[in-house]
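Q: Could you fold this chain for me?
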Amino acid sequence: MAVTLKMLAKMHNFIGLTQTELKEVKKYIATEKQIEKGQTILFEDDQSNYMYFITSGSVKVYKKSINGKEQILNIASIGESLNDVSTFDGGSSAMDIQAMTNVRLYAIKKEDMKHLFLKFPRVALNTAGVLAAKVRRDSSLVEVLSFDQVISRLARLILKQAATGGGERLPLFTQQDLASMIGSSRVFVNKSLRIMEENHAIRLERRRIVIIDEQALKNMVR
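A: Sure. Below is the predicted structure, expressed as structure tokens.
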């Protein structure tokens, strides 16, 4: 699939650019990559010369402890960027990045991204906003992991997924994925889901979570 201005305009780093500016950005796209579901895009500490932009699919961004436990930092989707940190500090990848579905990426060389910052101040401002949002997200995650109960964290996650486009019928991640997202274990996630169902806050269907009582979930968060 060819690089299009319409798709470039959806990338958070390039929002607000004119058609003329987007045509200039297009010249810096080094390649378009297709990644299959389950394939690792980058391992933590990998070296890469590129910054990536998601044009289709979903990507899991996570850290792994020495005992193999995962903590998912973000489920990134269309418009989001990957490998930002190493673009600016010159180091290796700061986290593991894996395709959760089939994924397409635009890749821009790190040095070319820096040229775009100088050429288009809007790109630099957008990128600063993207990085600030990621810092805020990770700070919030630390707070949640530190102070919330498992069922509260799970209720918060379900409400967030619903608010970002899932509606009342949400795809059911595996219980291990949910555990990684909220920093818990699969056993506790299973128990929490059953408690929510017994309290008529949700209904579990085949590969679906159906929200029955949104207010009950909000009460569990509090």
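A (continued): The two ends are 46 Å apart (CA to CA).
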